[in-house]
Amino acid sequence: MSKQLQFKLVLLGESAVGKSSLVLRFVKDQFDDYRETAFLTQTVNLDDGTSVKFEIWDTAGQERYKSLAPMYYRNANCAVVVYDITQTASLEKARNWIRELQRQADPSIVIALCGNKLDLAARRQVTQEEAQKYAEEEGLMWAETSAKTGEGVSDIFTRIAKKLPTTAQPASRGGASRAGATAGRAGVDLNKQQRPSTSADQCNC
């Protein structure tokens, strides 16, 4: 019987690196510079029959309020930390988020470092070598994407989905019957999981 698992995924990164655009491209295959997102879901079907449903939490600009950040990554199974390849400072901000996740999030969390705006490669400030070396040193997944063209977007989420079922606890253990705002550490029975509500203020990111 195929497995159906649900995981909480959070996007973190400096404002304007394209987090919301990345989610919109992944979920709806659309691009909109000004579209705001806070919570969306998308399912990835793997070759082995596993169905991985992501609860995607976008900080939607609230990362500027540092005290609110833990509500997004608490009990997250995976995180995509996004930087803008045309802005060196955004990679440093991403490093700060990764350090915070390593300190505060669950030790089993899967973290992917994602360099967005690959369509603006002519204005690149962050080299692939620099970012990939950092990711390897920290044990992170790494990819570059373009939310505008769609390049690399599905691939990074699929790679995360492939890693999650082998690192998470089975749905029958570790709180699979819990319903509410987060999926916890384990894969969650989709028949029992309730859609979380969010009152997060949204802004263009």
How would you sum up this structure, described in words?
With 205 residues, the chain is an alpha/beta fold. The protein has a single domain (4-167), classed as 3-Layer(aba) Sandwich (Rossmann fold). 28% of the residues lie in helices and 21% in strands. It has five helices and six strands, in the order βαββαβαβαβα. The protein has helices at residues 19-28, 69-73, 88-104, 128-138, 153-167; strands at 4-13, 39-45, 51-58, 78-84, 110-116, 141-144. A six-stranded mixed beta sheet has the order 2-3-1-4-5-6, with helices on both faces. It is globular, with a radius of gyration of 16 Å. It starts with a strand and ends in a 38-residue tail after the last helix.
CATH-level-4 superfamily name: P-loop containing nucleotide triphosphate hydrolases
Count of helix runs: 5
Amino-to-carboxy terminus distance: 40 Å
CATH class: Alpha Beta
Structural class: alpha/beta
Give the name of the CATH architecture.
Answer: 3-Layer(aba) Sandwich
Choose one word for the global shape: globular
Helix content: 25-40%
Based on DSSP secondary structure assignment, what is the total number of beta strands?
A: 6
* Domains, number: 1
Spatial ordering of strands, largest sheet:
2-3-1-4-5-6
Q: What amount of the residues lies in strands?
A: 15-25%
Order of helices and strands: EHEEHEHEHEH
Whole-number mean pLDDT = 81
Per the CATH scheme, the topology name is Rossmann fold
